[in-house]
């Protein structure tokens, strides 16, 4: 009995666990449709050595030890220790080295998508640099200019403690580095692309208002065919044109050695024996999760812009949207937007088609379609059950022509004979929150306006002149129903709200 109970409990837990992960969205661009890539993502219930290797070849001054990358209580921990040892390096045989640390690298490579990790830095500063990054392995020599031999995207390198040429001092732990490295063919020769020598192409540095050693933060990068974007806690902190970073790369979490324990001599990173110390060691970085998503082909529009407003036959109906061809893909054909009259069973009765050719060849972009609706019947005069809807789609290069469509259905569009300026003024305004406890805001109105709040017997309780986005304190009002009136340029809007 207990065996069966445990078995079914395990099934239920696993079903819930994977469903929960699948519903998680990136800290940035939550409005898009993403597909979590399970093979590259990990919540670190354990260290899955089918998914990760923790024992790649050592290189340079970095000596990787498998036991220094491990999972403890649902957290990936990467440790660095001071331990003098010898091995062969890229600059000599049987060289003496002084530190060892941990690393995990995904078992398979990936190129385009959104990569995110939740990380807390290590205590030791300076000298140790927690890193979340991606790099290519063993790419063939390029045959054409503009192609890469090596590609590396540093999602984040923490506490590098670089020298600032601006302040003439060493940087503190608040310096967040998000850089690119590469080797590419230009003018028939292989050239190095590095942050300091190719700043416009490869360097991003952001100074945080927090110390990354104190608590967890999310660090992410969006690698697209055209551009690369960096995010900290879901806020964009850097972007570069994607010139060379199109190779398959391996997602990696590691801790690297930095100044004062290493130095550059003739372009080679070497140890600094006289700086060796055990002070601050061992030290650990912490990683709560690694998550990787691919964007799906999609068309995004603000549904409320079309379902909560009236469209007059005396004006044009403009449909605006954003397109995404999906991670690693491009728009193959024009965007086709259809304004449809549909019957209750979904059959198309009538349609107007408008296209936008400007998206062709783009991975993401804005698009629009402008409809002349003067010849259409008003919604009120349509046969019972009929309604107006908008559909939008385009072909992508994914799978030779996979279609991208609207993420959210747009239907029940209201077409009327005429919409006046006063109508537009009123329909754009709304108050939030409703019901309200302490403060409410009036949104959708620009500039200065007058505001009146009445009780149910039309007695003015609050009267003020204010500006857009200014919060109105209503905490002094008793619980109950109230009316709010907004007046601007002799136009007014009135609605009700409930005070909790």
UniProtKB/TrEMBL annotation:
Question: Keyword set for this entry?
Answer: Hydrolase, Signal
**Which InterPro entries does this entry report, sorted A to Z?**
Beta-glucanase-like, ConA-like_dom_sf, Glycosyl_Hydrlase_16, Secre_tail
Q: Which residues form the GH16 domain?
A: 18-298
- The answer to whether keyword Signal applies is yes
- Using the record, list the residue span of the signal peptide; answer none if the entry has no such feature: 1-22
Q: Which Pfam families match?
A: Glyco_hydro_16, Por_Secre_tail
Judging by the UniProt lineage, the source's domain of life is: Bacteria
BP-aspect Gene Ontology terms: carbohydrate metabolic process
GO terms for MF: hydrolase activity, hydrolyzing O-glycosyl compounds
The record's section on NCBIfam families has: Por_Secre_tail
Give the record's family classification: Belongs to the glycosyl hydrolase 16 family.
Q: Which PANTHER family match?
A: GLYCOSIDE HYDROLASE FAMILY 16 PROTEIN, GLYCOSYL HYDROLASE-RELATED
Q: What is this protein called?
A: Glycosyl hydrolase family protein
Query: Which source organism?
Result: Flammeovirga pectinis
Phylogenetic placement of the source organism: Bacteria, Pseudomonadati, Bacteroidota, Cytophagia, Cytophagales
């Amino acid at each position: 009995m207990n065996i069966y109970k445990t078995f079914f409990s395990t099934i239920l837990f696993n079903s819930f666990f994977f469903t929960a992960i699948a519903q998680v969205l990136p800290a940035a661009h939550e409005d898009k449709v993403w597909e979590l890539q399970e093979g590259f993502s990990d919540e670190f219930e354990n260290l899955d050595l089918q998914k990760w290797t923790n024992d790649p070849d050592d290189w340079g001054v970095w000596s990787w030890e498998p036991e220094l990358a491990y999972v403890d209580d649902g957290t990936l921990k990467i440790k660095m220790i001071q331990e003098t040892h010898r091995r062969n390096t890229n600059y000599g045989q049987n060289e003496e080295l002084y530190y060892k640390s941990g690393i995990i690298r995904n078992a398979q490579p990936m190129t385009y998508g959104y990569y995110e990790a939740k990380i807390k830095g290590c205590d030791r500063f300076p000298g140790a640099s927690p890193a979340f990054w991606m790099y290519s392995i063993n790419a063939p020599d390029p045959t054409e200019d503009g192609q890469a031999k090596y590609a590396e995207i540093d999602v984040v390198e923490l506490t590098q403690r670089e020298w600032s040429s601006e302040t003439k001092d060493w940087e503190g732990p608040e310096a967040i580095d998000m850089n690119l490295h590469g080797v590419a063919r230009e003018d028939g020769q292989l050239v190095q692309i590095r942050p300091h020598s190719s700043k416009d192409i490869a360097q991003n540095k952001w100074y945080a208002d927090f110390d990354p050693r104190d608590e967890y933060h999310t660090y992410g990068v969006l690698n697209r065919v055209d551009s690369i974007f960096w995010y900290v806690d879901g806020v964009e902190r850097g972007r570069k044109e994607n010139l060379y970073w199109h190779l398959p790369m391996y997602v990696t979490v590691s801790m690297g050695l930095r100044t004062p324990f290493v130095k550059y001599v003739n372009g080679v990173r070497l140890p600094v024996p006289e700086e060796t110390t055990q002070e601050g060691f061992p030290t650990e970085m912490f990683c709560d999760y690694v998550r990787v998503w691919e964007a799906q082909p999609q068309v995004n529009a603000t549904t409320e812009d079309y379902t909560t407003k009236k469209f007059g036959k005396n004006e044009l109906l403009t449909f605006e949207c954003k397109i995404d061809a999906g991670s690693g893909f491009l728009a193959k054909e024009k965007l086709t937007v259809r304004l449809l009259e549909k019957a209750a069973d979904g059959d198309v009765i009538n349609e107007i088609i408008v296209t936008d050719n400007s998206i062709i060849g783009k991975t993401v972009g804005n698009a629009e379609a402008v409809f002349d609706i003067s010849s259409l019947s008003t919604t009120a005069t349509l046969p019972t059950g009929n309604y107006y809807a908008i559909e939008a789609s385009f072909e992508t290069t994914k799978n030779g022509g996979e279609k991208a469509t609207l993420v959210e259905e747009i239907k029940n569009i209201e077409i009327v004979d005429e919409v006046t300026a006063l109508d537009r003024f009123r329909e754009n305004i709304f108050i939030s929150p409703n019901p309200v406890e302490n403060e409410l805001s009036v949104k959708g109105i620009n500039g200065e306006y007058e505001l009146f709040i009445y009780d149910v017997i039309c007695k003015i309780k609050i009267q003020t002149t204010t500006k857009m986005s200014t919060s109105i304190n209503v905490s002094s009002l008793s619980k109950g129903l109230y009316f709010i009136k907004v007046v601007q340029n002799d136009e007014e809007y009135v609605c009700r709200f409930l005070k909790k």
